[in-house]
Amino acid sequence: MALRGVWQLQKLVVSYCDWGGSSRGIRAFMETHLPALKEKKLHLEVVTQLVRGQHPNLKGIYKNHNERVVCVRNFGPEDILLQATRLRNSLGRKVVKLRSRHVTKRPSVQGTWSTELKMS
């Protein structure tokens, strides 16, 4: 995704095994979709990395020095392209889990409202 007109994904690392069965889809992805992806996205550096005996994965390295790794074990070429597109479209920020669904700067003095309150 572009933040102020600058794409945040800097490098996409494609790790795969040359003989493993779980890497069959990523090898087909590298033959069909990867050359077009390299030509179309000139701002993106795409690196292939041969790692024998390991499951395939995609690693996105962002400008804010964060990384995201997606395991693409037994995925088809179209699914891997979808995951690569999702990595490209994300900002690379860390996921922050909220403590509650209700977020406010000034919590109520009376407490949180719920439907289980009984008015007598």
UniProtKB/TrEMBL annotation:
Positions of the Ribosomal protein/NADH dehydrogenase domain: 18-91
Any single Gene Ontology cellular-component annotation: mitochondrial large ribosomal subunit
PANTHER family, A to Z: 39S RIBOSOMAL PROTEIN L43 (PTHR21396), LARGE RIBOSOMAL SUBUNIT PROTEIN ML43 (PTHR21396:SF2)
Keyword Transport in record: no
An individual GO BP term: mitochondrial translation
Signal sequence segment: none
Organism superkingdom: Eukaryota
Protein name from the UniProt record: Large ribosomal subunit protein mL43
Any one Gene Ontology molecular-function term assigned to this protein's record: structural constituent of ribosome
Keywords, ordered alphabetically: Mitochondrion, Ribonucleoprotein, Ribosomal protein
Places the protein is found: Mitochondrion
SUPFAM superfamilies, per database record: Thioredoxin-like
Family: Belongs to the mitochondrion-specific ribosomal protein mL43 family.
